[in-house]
């Protein structure tokens, strides 16, 4: 084979098979499996170094091809009845049919991918404006959303600032002083009443470490349940908790 | 409200917003029905279509946006030398194509169609906010189900996935 094709140029074994099928102008519904397998294998042999991750997928397909080839060599039980037709039409017994289906399905998505590429190129030639900064029109509640990382970093901040009075005794297992579900209710009630609460206000200086943690968990839980929303007006700034309106 | 007045307001809103604006939000702000807005938007599209305009209106997902026309690009390029936006790899495009039409879909299902591992591709698509996790399949292992995002439609300038399906059918006719 004079043609030097790198494996990386193909998006997987199905892509390589489709390439071979198109190159040899094979009817996809009647693949000469022996010929195709030979060509496929010779591509693999042409590889000097094998990236094992990449190659394993190609090798799996090689094994599939060989398995189909060997199954086709075996005499089929029905062969006497359909001998005249020479199996030109794929019946359900055809060992190739599963591969053909996969190839056709893959080909479909390959085509869509090409349309997407055209769309992407078209989009890269049009320009959108940067959104106008309209934040001054709102009150101070229009703030960017806060990520969990921000919440965690502020929480660590509070823990660190606080003088830990608790005596650290690893052997003592305390009964949970404050059940989480109760704290969730409390925190929610506070947010409902105050409408807008500073994240730091939930963590009073006198609280113990486990209380702080329970409170933090309660806030996370309320966010997860979509009961409250958190905002932060600037990086490292204060985080505000507000009630999420019912959708 | 007078139709021509609505056109002016829509134009102003879209200019100020920059980002695509939800049709529902436009309807709320102008206090007229979505159908009326769409009707007027279609009128505006045609007006912008004439060659003496350099901007156009298009729909992406359920949003409306105001952008430059692609035929202005060569001149913008000459003047501002914009950075070439990085484009998606073929692997990413193929994976995205599968997710678009098969969503919600698991990683294993995508892999069985593409015949290759898609772990890395999925991560980069997630990072680019083109796809997101939409839930879990209730089978052993509870695999993550993926779907495309609204931003994905904006990225490709598609009004809907159906639009893409129609494009595909047209191409097959060729």
Describe this structure in words.
The complex is a heterodimer of chains A (247) and B (174). Helix content of chain A is 49%, strand content 5%. Chain A has eight helices and three strands, in the order H-H-H-H-H-H-H-E-H-E-E. In chain B, strands 1-3-2 form a three-stranded antiparallel beta sheet. The N and C termini of chain B lie far apart (46 Å). The mean pLDDT of chain B is 88. The A-B interface holds A 11-15, 53, 57, 61, 102, 105-106, 109-117, 119-132, 134 and B 15-19, 56, 65-70, 73, 76, 82, 84-85, 87-88, 90-91, 93-94, 96-98, 100-101, 112-117, 155-158, 164, 167-168, 171.
What is the molecular shape of chain B?
globular
- By oligomeric state, this entry counts as heterodimer
Q: What value does the Rg of chain A take, in angstroms?
A: 33 Å
Percentage of residues in helical conformation of chain A: 40-55%
Task: Count up the domains of chain A.
Answer: 2
What is the number of E strands of chain B?
A: 6
Task: Quote the beta fraction of chain A.
Answer: 5-15%
Q: What name does CATH use for the topology of the largest domain in chain B?
A: Arc Repressor Mutant, subunit A
* CA distance, first residue to last residue of chain B: 46 Å
Q: Tell the overall outline of chain A.
A: elongated
């Amino acid at each position: 084979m004079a043609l030097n094709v790198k494996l990386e140029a193909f998006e997987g074994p199905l892509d390589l098979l489709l390439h071979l099928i198109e190159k040899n102008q094979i009817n996809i519904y009647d693949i000469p499996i022996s010929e195709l397998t030979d060509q496929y294998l010779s591509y693999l042999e042409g590889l000097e170094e094998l990236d094992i991750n990449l190659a394993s997928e190609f090798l799996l397909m090689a094994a599939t091809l060989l398995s189909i080839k060997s199954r086709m060599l075996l005499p089929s039980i029905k062969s006497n009845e359909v001998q005249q037709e020479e199996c030109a039409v794929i019946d359900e017994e055809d060992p190739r049919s599963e591969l053909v289906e996969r190839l056709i399905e893959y080909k479909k998505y390959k085509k869509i991918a090409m349309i997407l590429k055209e769309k992407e190129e078209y989009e890269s030639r049009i320009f959108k404006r940067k959104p106008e900064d309209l934040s001054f029109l709102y009150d101070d509640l229009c703030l960017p959303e806060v990520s969990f990382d921000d919440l965690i970093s502020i929480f660590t901040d509070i823990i660190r600032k606080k003088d830990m009075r608790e005596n650290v005794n690893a052997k003592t297992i305390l009964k949970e002083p404050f059940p989480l579900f109760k704290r969730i209710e409390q925190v929610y009630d506070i947010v409902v009443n105050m409408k807008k609460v500073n994240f730091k206000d939930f963590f009073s200086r006198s609280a113990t470490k486990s209380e702080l943690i329970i409170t933090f968990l309660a806030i996370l839980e309320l966010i997860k349940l979509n009961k409250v929303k958190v905002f932060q007006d600037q990086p490292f700034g204060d985080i505000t908790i507000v009630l999420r309106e019912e959708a | 409200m007078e139709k021509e007045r609505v056109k002016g307001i829509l134009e102003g809103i879209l200019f100020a917003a920059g980002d695509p604006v939800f049709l529902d939000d436009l309807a709320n702000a102008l206090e007229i029905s979505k159908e009326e807005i769409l009707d007027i938007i279609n009128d505006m599209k045609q007006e912008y279509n004439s060659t003496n305009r350099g901007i156009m209106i298009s729909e992406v997902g359920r949003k409306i946006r105001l952008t430059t026309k692609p035929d202005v690009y060569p001149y913008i390029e000459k003047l501002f030398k914009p950075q070439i936006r990085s484009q998606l790899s073929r692997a990413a495009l193929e994976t995205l194509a599968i997710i678009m039409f098969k969503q919600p879909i698991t990683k294993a299902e995508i892999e069985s169609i593409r015949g290759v591992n898609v772990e890395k591709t999925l991560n980069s698509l997630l990072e680019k906010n083109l796809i997101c996790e939409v839930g879990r399949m209730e089978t052993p292992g509870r695999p993550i189900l993926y779907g495309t995002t609204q931003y994905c439609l904006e990225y490709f300038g598609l009004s809907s996935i159906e639009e893409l399906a129609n494009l595909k059918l047209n191409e097959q006719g060729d």
